[in-house]
Amino acid sequence: MGGKQPLERRITLAFVLMTLIVSGTFSLGIVAIVHFIEEHLVSEELGRELDFAIDEELRHGEAARIDASTRFFSSHAGRDALPPRFAGLPEGFSEVIDGDEAYYVFKRSHDRHEDVLVKEQHEFEARERALFDVVLAGFLLSVFGAWGLGRLLAHRVMTPLRRLAQQVRHRDQLLPMAPRLAPDYPDDEVGWLAAAFDETLGQLRHSLERERLFTSDVSHELRTPLMVIATSCELLLGSPGLSGSERAQLDRIARASADMHDLVQTFLRLARAGQENEGLADSVSLNKLAAEQYRQWAPHFQAKGLAFALIDEGSSLGRYEAPQLRTVMSNLLRNALHYTDQGAVRLILGTDGFRVEDSGQGVPEEEQERIFHSFVRGHRTRGEGLGLGLSLVRRICQQQGWAVRVESIPDSGSCFSVDLGKGR
């Protein structure tokens, strides 16, 4: 009964094992008692018959008359010789089985000769075998009965646990107004477990609510200063007399402000997940956003000596929320820039989404799931990130109903693909 076996199976196996021990011990005890009683009673009976045979022979000088199933042998002169199959037996009671024939043998030695009494007992042997067959049948029936009873009881025991697991697994349990679980169960071990889940889920709901409120409040409050920064950049860029370096710095500030605005919009949308709020963000087509990202990232790839290409294989005509799509695409391009030292990076548009292919280090298979977790970075870390980019990508995709996956051959490059569905 290994620890990794399902609990229901372990309960059933415990029933069967207990029955094997108890019923097996009981059956073996019956067999041992039958043999003990048989030897004790038959020994006494054969001993009396042997005394009678010897007494009759000494008194009348002739063989004693015993029943047809019993024969008397003695080493006295003139007596029948003992058959070879009964020779060499120990003193006292013995049982001899020869094929279909069975005999009780009682031997006594005295005055330098041996007296032996042999009694046929095949009928008793047949009854004894029938008794043992009944015991064996009872043993097997008890084992099968224990298996059936164990399955039945295990199923009844596990039913409330399965129900509790289903309730805990249900996503509605994380909602603030989700009903408590403990009132649905009696005051027993399962009820205590439900109460523990209620307490833990309550703490989790509280933490999630605080995180949601913090993210929502911060995102909302940051929109105003970002708007001021963006407006100031527009005014300064329109001023005459700016040098080339000053205009370049203002362009960088404007782009950083736009990126921060998209992140704020993204976090605000994630914080409001599950709430209807149409019009929260602008929509954009895939090819238009890809062209924008190509223009923004091309200088960075060029500065690193990497070829960067935008390939349209028939892009989707749907429209998608601009901040979310821009954040997903820019994070994947940034990831490709950090982990590619030579070769090329390609942004490929398809009918169902887009792919970012690079010729970088690749991601080992055992890390392909972990890199989408928060604060997890690859074994060959680059840049100063905290390992939140790909985690944010997955959260956005889950919230939007998109799908992101990675295919990679170590030291040969990676391909991150995003399935956008049909859009709207």
Automatic annotation (TrEMBL):
<feature type="transmembrane region" description="Helical">
    <location>
        <begin position="12"/>
        <end position="37"/>
    </location>
</feature>
<dbReference type="InterPro" id="IPR036890">
    <property type="entry name" value="HATPase_C_sf"/>
</dbReference>
<dbReference type="InterPro" id="IPR003661">
    <property type="entry name" value="HisK_dim/P_dom"/>
</dbReference>
<dbReference type="InterPro" id="IPR003594">
    <property type="entry name" value="HATPase_dom"/>
</dbReference>
<keyword id="KW-0472">Membrane</keyword>
<protein>
    <recommendedName>
        <fullName>histidine kinase</fullName>
        <ecNumber>2.7.13.3</ecNumber>
    </recommendedName>
</protein>
<keyword id="KW-0597">Phosphoprotein</keyword>
<dbReference type="InterPro" id="IPR050428">
    <property type="entry name" value="TCS_sensor_his_kinase"/>
</dbReference>
<feature type="domain" description="HAMP">
    <location>
        <begin position="155"/>
        <end position="209"/>
    </location>
</feature>
<dbReference type="GO" id="GO:0000155">
    <property type="term" value="F:phosphorelay sensor kinase activity"/>
</dbReference>
<dbReference type="InterPro" id="IPR036097">
    <property type="entry name" value="HisK_dim/P_sf"/>
</dbReference>
<keyword id="KW-0902">Two-component regulatory system</keyword>
<dbReference type="Pfam" id="PF00672">
    <property type="entry name" value="HAMP"/>
</dbReference>
<dbReference type="InterPro" id="IPR005467">
    <property type="entry name" value="His_kinase_dom"/>
</dbReference>
<keyword id="KW-0418">Kinase</keyword>
<dbReference type="InterPro" id="IPR004358">
    <property type="entry name" value="Sig_transdc_His_kin-like_C"/>
</dbReference>
<keyword id="KW-1133">Transmembrane helix</keyword>
<keyword id="KW-0808">Transferase</keyword>
<dbReference type="Pfam" id="PF00512">
    <property type="entry name" value="HisKA"/>
</dbReference>
<dbReference type="InterPro" id="IPR003660">
    <property type="entry name" value="HAMP_dom"/>
</dbReference>
<dbReference type="Pfam" id="PF02518">
    <property type="entry name" value="HATPase_c"/>
</dbReference>
<keyword id="KW-0812">Transmembrane</keyword>
<feature type="domain" description="Histidine kinase">
    <location>
        <begin position="217"/>
        <end position="424"/>
    </location>
</feature>
<dbReference type="GO" id="GO:0005886">
    <property type="term" value="C:plasma membrane"/>
</dbReference>
